[in-house]
Amino acid sequence: MSASEYINVDAAEATEQEMTDDKIVQAALGEAEGSDLETRDEEEEEEEPDFQPPSLCEARQAMTVLLRFFETNNNTTVEEMDKILSVEKLLKEKTRKTCAKRK
Predict the structure, then answer these.
(1) Pair 14, 35 in one domain
(2) pTM above 0.70, yes or no
(3) DSSP states of 65-100 as a string?
(4) 16-39: per-residue pLDDT in tens?
């Protein structure tokens, strides 16, 4: 068998099923099997809860956990601790500003 014969061995074989006129119309109207998946995807998107940003209290609680993690981690460098402490400082400033606005 030559290379050309090997490459074209199934050239005369049907590799796809022919679509009937009805299937073509259904596909054009979006009624084919794939549109069912799109409908399910849209339904799943609608069921997602609304995103709520974390509250200041939640952010402070998360900061406490982060500090505890970095303080107890033996591999934490001074530079890393400085960075996490600067984030804590920003959070404290935000807390003071928020509390001052309420007064």
Answers:
(1) yes
(2) no
(3) HHHHHHHH-TT--HHHHHHHHHHHHHHHHHHHHHHH
(4) 777 788 887 888 887 655 555 555
